[in-house]
Structure formats: C-alpha cells, structure tokens
Amino acid sequence: MKFDDPADVSRVCTDRLGEGAGRQFAAMARRGFRLIRPTDTAGPTGRCRLGGPALLDPGTPWPEHDGMPLSLHAVLDTDALAPWLGDELPVRPGLLNFFHLDPDVPYEVLRSLDVSGPGAARVLPADPARAVGTVAPEPARRYPAVPVHAGEVTMLPDCWDVEDEDIEFDRDQHWGAASVVLSEMGDLDGNTAGAHCAFGWPDTSYTMKVTSRDVDGPAVHLLQLAEDADLGWGWGDAGTLYYTIPVGALRAGDFGKAGARVQSC
Questions:
Q1: Alpha-carbon torsion 252, 254, 212, 244, what sign?
Q2: pLDDT per residue over 39-85, tens digit each?
Q3: Cβ pair 77, 111 in contact under 8 A
Q4: Domain that holds residue 247
Q5: 130-145 residue pLDDT tens
Q6: Closest Cα to residue 98, out of 129, 68, 130, 136?
Q7: CATH of the domain at 182
Q8: DSSP labels, the chain
Q9: Does the CA dihedral 150-193-118-105 come out positive or negative?
Q10: How many domains does the structure of the chain reveal?
Q11: Could you give the CA distance from residue 240 to residue 49 in angstroms, rounded to a whole number?
Q12: Could you tell me what percent of the chain has a pLDDT over 90?
C-alpha cells in the first residue's frame, strides 16, 4: 500500500481500523520508492539503474554460486536515497549491487542448480568514489542498463506481512491480523507486485510472507523486481523477486546476510 502524502497514512488507518489498531498499523509505515523509467519531469535518481554492468570496488571478485556466476539485476545509489529514508537507512553503504542466479545455460544444466538456495542471491556494496563498471562473465546474463527514477512514497505492509501481535483486533470476528487488513484495507492495496520498488514494504499478490522476522523485528525490504519484458527477465508465471535483510545485519552494514526469494503463480 503506497501513499504519496505521508499525512494520509494515519488518517486512513484510523478511519478504517479504529483508533487503537489504526495507530498500531500506521506505526508500521516505512519510507520507500517506486522505481520507474525516467520522464521529462522525473529524471534518473543518482546512479540507480536496472541491469547493466556491476559497479564494484576494484578487486572485488564476481559472485558465484555452485561455480556459476550470478547475473547483475540492479544497482541502488543509497546516497541519493538516504535523504528520504532518514533513520530507516542506519548505514551509508554507497552503491548496492543486486545479483541473482540466472545463467544463460541449457535447461538441463539450469535444473541441476540450486536457484533458490541462500547463495543464489547476493547484495554487494561498493564505494561510489572507487567503484568501476564490471561486465558479467559468461554464462551470466547481461541485461541492458536502464536508469531509473526513485519516486518517494510511504508504504504500509500488505496483509501477509502483518502478524497477529502487530495490531489489536476482535478474534471473534477475524481469524487473524491479516484478515483485518485484507478486509478493511484491501481496496487500497495497489497490488503492484508487477512493479519495481525499493525499501519500504514489498507488494505481494499471493498468500505468502516476504519479510521474515527475528528478535529485532521484520526484515528490511531492500528491492522488489517484477517481470520486465523490455529487459528480458522474469521468474516463472507473473513472478517477482524480493531482496530482504535482517534488521540487525542492516545496522551492522553486513549485506552478506541479505537474501532473496521469488514468488510466482
């Protein structure tokens, strides 16, 4: 659920959920971005882009999994995003490179790879002042470089990323917090799992949680990549690729703890 005006969040939540649950749900709001192609009025945001070569510190080895090089899918320029994110970005990692296992190999070879394992996705930071363009080695796919504009929005979680303890609700009327959000906020859900987004909360079309939790709370959503015919990538039937990182790992700047998962029909 995305709001262009942050002031709308509290009003809408309390109108729909009542004072108690409304305040609790509004407190879960996070700042994020819609990633769109630049226009005449909305130019590229820093060095943010989809595809293209990676921007890595000199000497950084290209990430691999099972001996297969990963493909570069996106670069986020967190220096350009930091003014809007504020405290929600507790570190300044500079450039973030997002990789995923997506080799250009025959299907029988692809079947032998663990494309959903923890090593199948990597997020590598780089110093903007030192980073150099690095072309993916074969057989990793090389997608065209597409600059993007990061449009500022305030996001609320979709129902599947809400736990029962997050908001108060009538347990005789609803089977869980997800039921409350689904019934009372559902028409505001843009169902934009078909869009590219960064930070904030992920958009989901399916009954599956994206942000796992630990003692520090829900994982931080870093990037959502949808099927993109112009770039030539996709993940199954209407698939979406989500990158997240535990809260503690983000605070420590440990992007080696970041992971990714795919949702598809």
A1: positive
A2: 989 999 999 999 999 999 999 999 999 889 999 999 999 999 999 99
A3: no
A4: 2-263
A5: 999 999 999 999 999 9
A6: 136
A7: 2.30.320.10
A8: -EESSTHHHHHHHHHHH-HHHHHHHHTT-EEEEEEE---SSS---TT-EESSSEEE-TTPPPPEETTEEPEEEEEEEHHHHHHHHGGGS-S--BEEEEEE--B---HHHHHTS-TTSGGGEEEEEE-TTT-EEEPPPTTB--PPPEE-EEEEEEE---GGG--TTTS---TTT-SSHHHHHHHHHGGG----TTSEEEES----SSS---S-EETTEEPEEEEEEE-BTTTTB--STT-EEEEEE-HHHHHHT-GGG-EEEEE--
A9: negative
A10: 1
A11: 17
A12: 62
- The pTM for the full model equals 0.93
Q: Which two tokens stand for residue 119?
A: 């090593």
Residue 74 in tokens = 């996106």
